[in-house]
Specification:
By secondary structure, the chain is an alpha+beta fold. About 50% of the residues lie in helices and about 25% in strands. It has a four-stranded antiparallel beta sheet. The protein is globular and about 45 Å long.
Length: about 200
């Protein structure tokens, strides 16, 4: 009888071992499938963003001018958006307006606009510091829709890289409507229109 009990105990232990092995194997497979699914979604998202950016740039090239006047505006516009899209703390984010004013890149309609709200005013917190965010300007391209009486009306395509303290980065883009006064070389209006984040995904 002792021998029978021992055999039963061994069978129970074996079944338990098989059950645990199946459970952990199943859990691992579920995690693997979840990771694989997320990767597929990420790849699809990146491809969509890349396609979206290509469509935006193609549309700008077809429907807007990039000529002598846009070339005149380009240096000032580039410097303006370099300041707007470059920061690494709440302090540098909130200093952008003063930098633009000091460099005389834009009129009061621009410098007092929502483009230069502090992160505290926008979100109710020191958002840039709290989320360890930073932004690095890459490029800005001016496209004119109309030039009349020394005023260029058009759009600007801005490319920049967003980063977080976790080490991830996103190549992003934004489009702005602008009015640019050619005689004074100043932006007189600037308004955010549209943006695409994660054009090339996390890297």
């Amino acid at each position: 009888m002792h021998k029978d009990k021992l055999q039963v105990a061994l069978v129970v232990a074996l079944l338990a071992l098989v059950g645990f092995s199946w459970y952990f194997s199943n859990q691992s497979m579920e995690k693997y499938n979840a990771v694989a699914t997320n990767k597929q979604k990420s790849v699809k998202l990146v491809e969509t963003k890349q396609s979206e950016l290509a469509d935006v740039e193609a549309n700008l090239n077809i429907n807007y001018q990039h000529n002598f006047e846009t070339g005149r505006a380009q240096p000032t516009v580039t410097k303006f958006f370099s300041i707007l899209r470059t920061y690494d703390s709440s302090k540098t984010y909130n200093e952008r307006r003063n930098k633009v004013v000091k460099a005389k890149l834009a009129g009061v309609n621009v410098t007092e606009s929502s483009l230069f709200k502090t992160d505290q005013a926008e979100t109710g917190e020191r958002y840039i510091d709290n989320h360890q965010m930073s932004s690095q300007f890459d490029s800005a391209t001016v496209y004119a829709s109309k030039i009349s009486n020394g005023v260029l009306v058009g759009k600007v395509l801005v490319k920049y890289t967003m980063m977080t303290g976790k080490g991830s980065s996103q190549d992003s883009m934004a489009i702005y409507d602008i009015r640019y006064d050619l005689p004074t070389n100043q932006m007189t209006e600037a308004r955010y229109v549209y943006g695409v984040n994660g054009v090339l995904g996390n890297g």
